[in-house]
Design goal:
- The protein is an alpha+beta fold.
- The strands form 2 sheets. Strands 3, 4, 5, 6, 8 and 9 form a 6-stranded antiparallel beta sheet that branches. A 3-stranded antiparallel beta sheet has the order 1-2-7.
- A hairpin with a 4-residue loop joins strand 8 and strand 9.
């Protein structure tokens, strides 16, 4: 009888420990979580000319006559967690300076940080994603970090590898080839799909 009591007590302790670990695991994973991916993209001049979006008309107005595309910084935010999340702002940070970047009414520029606020607040449900686009000129040799802040003041960053790769290519010409468009002998080889969030 005494042996049986000890066995039952030991078994009860094991079950309690497993239940505790399971509850802790659920509390850690049952929340919103963002995965950020940054890349260089572009919008062709003809796409901007055919678009009715005000933002596209503004981009078109900034294109030089000889430019046939607008290079863009694309930041994808994936909610890989289990809860909705509200994004409140995106900050682009510079190690030293970015003097050639012009201040615009929808950006706040100070102390080596450019704060984007025009697209926010932005709610993302579990499994959803959002795309934020800015002119590629914001990426230069001093480009240091991209921070996305949520309504509960949690901060998410692009990986250092992602930042490094974009900096390495910041001043390289992005070649675009178009296929099947009248009046053009170019062809397009850039993958138009959004990048996937790695788990």
């Amino acid at each position: 009888m005494e042996l049986m009591t000890k066995v039952l007590a030991f078994w009860g302790a094991i079950i309690s420990t497993i239940a505790l670990i399971w509850n802790v695991r659920n509390s850690l994973t049952d929340r919103a979580n963002l995965k950020l991916v940054g890349e260089r993209g572009y919008i062709m001049r003809f796409q901007l000319e055919e678009s009715e979006k005000k933002s596209h008309k503004a981009i078109l107005g900034n294109l030089k006559p000889e430019e046939d595309k607008a290079d863009r910084l694309k930041i994808y935010a994936y909610n890989v967690g289990k809860r909705p999340i509200v994004i409140s702002k995106v900050e682009i940070k510079y190690r030293k300076r970015a003097g050639e970047i012009k201040w615009q009414f929808w950006r706040k520029w100070r102390n080596g940080t450019m704060t984007m606020t025009s697209d926010f607040p932005r709610k993302l449900d579990a499994g959803d994603f959002a795309l934020f686009e800015y002119g590629w000129h914001v990426v230069n040799e001093d480009f240091h970090d991209v921070i996305l802040t949520t309504a509960d003041d949690r901060k998410y960053r692009l990986t250092k590898t992602n930042i490094r790769k974009m900096k390495e290519n910041h001043d390289r010409e992005l070649k675009v080839f178009l296929i099947g468009r009248k009046g053009s002998n170019k062809s397009s080889k850039q993958d138009a799909q959004k990048p996937r969030a790695s788990s």
